[in-house]
Amino acid sequence: MNIPLYEQIYNSILEQIKEGFLKKGDRVLSEIELAEKFNVSRITSKKALDKLAQNNIIERIRGKGSFVAQDHPTVNQADISKPYNTSNSKLIALIVPGFSDSFGSKLVGMIEETCSQNNCNLIIRFTRGDVIEEENAIKSLVDYGVDGLIIHPVHGENYNVELLKLVLENFPLILIDRYLKGIPASSVSTDNQRASECLTNYLFDLGHAEIGFLSSSPDGTSTIEERVKGFNLAYSKRGLILNPSFHINHLISNLPQNHNRESLDKDYAAVKQFILDHPTVTGFNVCEYDLALILLKVIKDLGKNIPEDYSIVCFDSPENLLNRPVFTHIRQNEFDMAKIAVQHLLQLIQGEQIPKHTMVDFTLEEGESTMGLISTQLNEC
């Protein structure tokens, strides 16, 4: 059985005490010194010292260092010969902005189930879309001693410092739903570019000549950036010139930190103005389900109908086993994303190599929000 690196350091120091190389009151190597000696990250060496302190083997004095405790237990009491965690159980933490019925609930559920199947315990922390909350969650969970992290990064272009530290120190970490540009962290996500291209082509095949795209800002969020690319690519491959004004990209009410009436009203007004300013647009590719609901509300309030006057496609939708979904949408494979994320994280914990970016396939599910303007054979994605 592979013993975690920090446990190896822990046992090494206990051995030095057992052999008499370290006596009561002697100074123990610092986090930096241990990291250099064992060629590990400071996160790992700190974890070893933390466990020694928790077991009263050493005393940590701020500003001075770590010292063998005057009243530490005997080596036999410390049970040096007993391998750490004989069940090989791991402690994994999941950090997410939140989740909903349209996307996230199945993902979180399957992560928990996959952890349980692999003898892992799971801690879940919510950031509510706040980068400071995300930073605090990472720091506290690493300090607590988790073996690895699965993180659904918050929306935006600002990467938090604690996440960057983890990546630089090779702490076991998997990003889910998106990746971070320029950051060499492994990720698992949907093939968002191909999925968005698929949705846009679906509308083209229905006979819609001019299609709009609705999203929040794509800056710093790979998921949205890839969906915008797919939308643009669908236009390009058909030799069509895309009017830049067909993309409204400043909606905010779908973000966890903006779930309030004021943001909703702003987005409603922006979408309504977009429709009034672009009367030739008859199809809409919407980046998220919540934004599609706003669009649907605006269209109905304008006295128009779905799908007779407009067609809407979007990403994600609550599952309805009794009726067709409201929107034709991309169904992300949350189950596979979850399983792969946990499996890859466990491989990282064991020191194995994994792919940097893993793309998971998707399905297009037809709903009540689309209707062909012409009779045509629809192409598969």
Automatic annotation (TrEMBL):
GO terms for molecular function: DNA-binding transcription factor activity; transcription cis-regulatory region binding. Keywords: DNA-binding, Repressor, Transcription, Transcription regulation. The keyword DNA-binding applies. Residues 3-71 form the HTH gntR-type domain. It comes from Jeotgalibacillus proteolyticus. Gene3D superfamilies: 3.40.50.2300, Winged helix-like DNA-binding domain superfamily/Winged helix DNA-binding domain. InterPro entries: LacI/GalR-like_sensor, Peripla_BP_I, Tscrpt_reg_HTH_GntR, WH-like_DNA-bd_sf, WH_DNA-bd_sf. The lineage of its organism: Bacteria, Bacillati, Bacillota, Bacilli, Bacillales. SUPFAM superfamilies: Periplasmic binding protein-like I, Winged helix' DNA-binding domain. The keyword Repressor applies. This is GntR family transcriptional regulator. It comes from the Bacteria.
